[in-house]
Amino acid sequence: MTSNNATPTSKTALWALILGTSALALVFGGIILLAVLELPFLWLIPLLGMFLAVGAITSGHIGIPRTSARHGRRGRPLAVTGLVLGYICIVLTLLVLPSLIVPQALDDLEDNPERMKQRAFSDAIRACESAMAEALSNGEEFRCEDAQDRLSSRWDDKVAIVDTAPNSCMILVMTDDSFTAAAIPWNYSP
């Protein structure tokens, strides 16, 4: 009688488990990041997970017959687990990913003025923070004009960052629809 430890594990079954687990991590992680962050091309993470899931499914289907007693290999639970994880990832990606991507795409297509204003403020605040960090690291004084220079060219005619008082900048955002300005103060201390 042979010991179970003497029987080798099928490499294909092991690969099914590795690919299935990796696919699950990428799909769940990518979906969570996509729901929280609004970064371009973030949808590629769950899509990559879906490709790994296809590999897990393929390896699982190949690995199950190779773990039979006739082949003298063990690892059937590994192959089945990888196969199931692969199918779960495919279904999850196909169901959830469109519901996260389509609203973002529609917002971009509509040029929603409120959404545009939020993005403009967010980009302006990031520009102020990075200009401040560079000024502090170089031992220079922060100027709001430096932050204005850091803004993306897409905001050239819509956003202005101006000095209002010592240690204070005003971020102005013009909307296309109403030509009104909304302003928030951005204070800094050296």
Task: Say how many strands there are.
Answer: 3
* Proportion of helical residues: 55-70%
State the low-pLDDT regions, or none: none
Strand content: 5-15%
Q: Tell me the distance between the termini.
A: 78 Å
Main beta-sheet annotation: 3 strands, antiparallel
User: How many distinct helices?
Assistant: 5
Describe the protein:
62% of the residues lie in helices and 11% in strands. The protein is built from 5 helices and 3 strands, in the order H-H-H-H-H-E-E-E. Strands 1-2-3 form a 3-stranded antiparallel beta sheet. The longest helix has 35 residues, at 76-110. The radius of gyration is 26 Å and the shape is elongated.
SSE topology:
Elements: H1 11-36, H2 44-66, H3 76-110, H4 113-138, H5 144-150, E1 159-165, E2 168-174, E3 181-187
Give a summary of the structure in a few sentences.
By secondary structure, the chain is mainly alpha-helical. It contains five helices and three strands.
Defining traits:
elongated, mainly alpha, single chain, 190 residues
